[in-house]
Amino acid sequence: MTVTRAQTNALAATLRAGFEAHGALPVEPPILQPAETLLDLYGEDIRARAYVTSDALRGEQMLRPDFTVPVVQMHMAHGADPARYTYAGEVFRRQEHDESRPNEFVQVGYEVFERTDPAASDAEVFALISQALSGLPVTAVTGDIGILMAVVRGLNTTDLRKNALMRHIWRPRRFRALLAQFSGDMPSAPAREAVLAGTVEASAPLVGARRQHEIDARIAALRSDAQAPPLPLRDVELIEMLLGLSAPMPAALERLHDLSVDLPSIVPAVARVAARQQALAAHGIDVEKLLFDASYGRSSMEYYDGFVFGFRAVDRLDLPLLASGGRYDALTRRLGARLGDNREIPAVGGVMRPGVMLELGAVI
After folding, report:
1. Strand, helix or coil for residue 65
2. Are 101 and 357 in contact (CB under 8 A)?
């Protein structure tokens, strides 16, 4: 089916009007965004795919790769508390490995900034998007990045190792390699061993942007970390069990409660999942059939730090997600710190792809 821009825009307008009917304020962040401010807030995937250009007066600029970060920036500068926003428009991402995926497409979104009841806000966003997709052959999956973050923070190991694992939560292969390295299950790379053994030539020329004092500090940190005891294999096994958890929400929650006996650091995060399940059920979501996958969302936006979700076509695996979203409390904290007043506010949102919805048979 050939979908026209006019059809996509018409459906986008209808979807946005639906969010406005639920109290969302329509906003239109500029297509051209300041690159220096935003690029470090995105994960590696989006940074690598952003269109960046230079302006003589404004410096580096980028075509917006999504709406969430500009909307959060706008809200943190002068938004009300609580607040709900909606938007519709084009986003731009380079596609270097898949010519079938568009580098320009329309997103429609709904964002909630509210302190009172995060579980209720999560359920509100999910339920509204689910309702907008009703009638289409889609399946939903949920997860929670905050559980794995809580596990890493609770590990009995060095801060250097915890920080490394936290940085690579969104890169599953690298995360598992680090677990194997820190538990002693995988030997260190030869270059690392050479550094630790002190066999690297001190007079070797500097390559890259790092200065000598930065290199010396890094070597000292690596040598200090090498003296730390390995991660207990039992901890690694428990993390692997968590990452392999995928089941309907009630069964997954029961398994999470079991894991929390051996991983007490996840107790608060599991309680948030339980509260979210109740809130979703109150919104009419059939939680008995709703999939919870503990690894879901680990290759998407790096600003998600809690609830994550996605809707995919049942029989069209060639299509991208019709909708996705999640909670990004840490993003508001980082932007608040940039503004110098350390403000933060719990926030959750989701985006929809009207063009993909039309390909799947949505009616305008």
Report:
1. coil
2. no
Give me the domain span that covers residue 50: 1-137+320-364
Gap between the Cα atoms of 264 and 147, Å rounded: 11
Question: Rounded distance, CA 308 to CA 148, Å?
Answer: 13
The Cα–Cα gap between 329 and 327 comes to: 6
Last residue of a domain, one of 200, 232, 264: 232
Using DSSP bridges, classify how beta strands 25-26 and 83-92 pair: parallel, antiparallel or unpaired. parallel
Q: What is the mean pLDDT of residues 279-304?
A: 93
Quickly list DSSP for 240-254: HHHHT-EEEHHHHHH
Binding-site annotation: residue ranges for L-histidine:
66-68, 93, 107, 111, 298, 303-304
The share of the chain scoring above pLDDT 70, in percent, equals 82
Residue 345: which CATH number? Answer: 3.30.930.10
Is residue 50 within 8 Å of residue 70, measured between CB atoms?
no
According to the model, what pLDDT value does residue 217 have?
Answer: 61
End position of a domain, from candidates 232, 252, 277: 232
DSSP H helices, the chain, are 5-20, 35-38, 44-49, 68-78, 118-132, 145-153, 159-167, 172-182, 190-197, 212-226, 233-243, 249-262, 267-282, 329-338, 354-359
Total domains in the fold of the chain: 3
Contact 264, 170 (CB under 8 A): no
Question: Looking at the predicted structure, is the pLDDT value of residue 112 above 70?
Answer: yes
Binding residues: 66-68, 93, 107, 111, 298, 303-304
Mean pLDDT within 84-91: 96
Based on the fold, state whether residues 36 and 26 are members of the same structural domain.
Answer: yes
Give the model's confidence band at 56: pLDDT under 50 very low, under 70 low, under 90 confident, else very high: confident
For residue 26, the Cα-to-chain-centroid distance in whole angstroms is 23
Q: What is the mean pLDDT of residues 218-237?
A: 78
Query: Are both 127 and 183 inside the same structural domain?
Result: no
Measured CA to CA, the distance from residue 81 to residue 39 in angstroms comes to 26
189 and 77 in a common domain: no
Q: Is residue 301 predicted with pLDDT exceeding 80?
A: no
Q: Which of 132-141, 146-155, 162-171, 188-197 has the lowest mean pLDDT?
A: 188-197
